[in-house]
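Thread: quick sanity check before group meeting

JM: Hey all, I'm pulling together slides for Thursday and realized we never actually wrote out the predicted structure for the chain we discussed last week. Dropping the sequence here so it's in one place. If anyone has concerns about the input, flag it before I start.
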Amino acid sequence: MDLSGILENNPVKVSVPCRVDFGGTLDISTFYLPLAHLNPVGFNMAMDLRTKVTLTPYRRGRIKVSSRGFDSAEFDHGNAPFDHPMGLMFACAQYFNAHGVHIQIDSASPPRSALGGSSSAAVAILAAFHTVFENPVDPAQVAWLAHYIESSVAGVPCGVQDQAAAAFGGAHMWAWKIGDHGGPVFDRFPVFDSKDDRKNFIPHMQVAYCGIPHVSKDINSRWVASFVQGKTRTVFARIIEMTRAFYTAILNKEYAEAADLMIRETRLRQQMTPDVLDETGEKLFDAAQAHQCGARFTGAGGGGCLWAVGGQKDMVLLAESWRTLLKDIPEAKLLDTRIDPAGILIE
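JM (edit): ok, ran it. Output follows.
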């Protein structure tokens, strides 16, 4: 459908948050189906480094995508390659048979930071197109649709936690399972009950960007391969237990326990894939332990971001240490970010 006329006087703007996480990978059906008897869960916190998508009119029969950190691209309607660096975005437009549209993506999170940026962008794009067509924007439906489109074009198994965090916002433990009608569903278990709870958590958390482009496909594929081969199923069973315990620790403000669980889970991941922390990540991880804090990579690691949890005084010292470690690395920095209670926002 040609959207140029519709968007001429009514451009659509939508934004969604990114996320940090614990217990990732378990949101991939390759994992949560064989481990269903253990009630697999994941944990994430939506962060207020939001990805904004704007739909504006473009030439009839053409689709253009622009995103900070990437070269803009445009193709004829129906001919956009889904294996392009921005193929996921074109695939989202194709779902609506849309053309005559320019999709502009502006993310406040660093590029390739392992904060779920591309999946978040897909959620925002789908919500924007729903808005154009005056469809209801249901967060769960948008999250699952974004997940299935990404899975169909990525060529590797994909999870749904990034899309869920973007669609709903907030901080949650998620239960991954098959619903009563035979399809996958998730249950949400919020961490914070109020604005004050979120505010009180701020001094107990830091997020650092390592300044190194993140590529999750290789590490993720090795986790998937080792699980399918039967080599690491007991490891992921332990990660389920740790994730549930981490949620309980954050819920009860037991930050020393939460920190210990971050260290233990990261070490398990390192045993499976030693390069889940790169050289900078190793230094940040060691500094966190030295200051009685916990730290963990985001996403599939291998670069990108680390996030830390600990006591308030310990986090002050850790922040100073991390700044020192990052000061000579291009683009690396502590991120000024907070938990974002909002998911999809339509302007």
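AS: nice. The mean pLDDT is 95. The chain has two domains: 4-192+341-346, 195-334.
JM: adding both to the slides.
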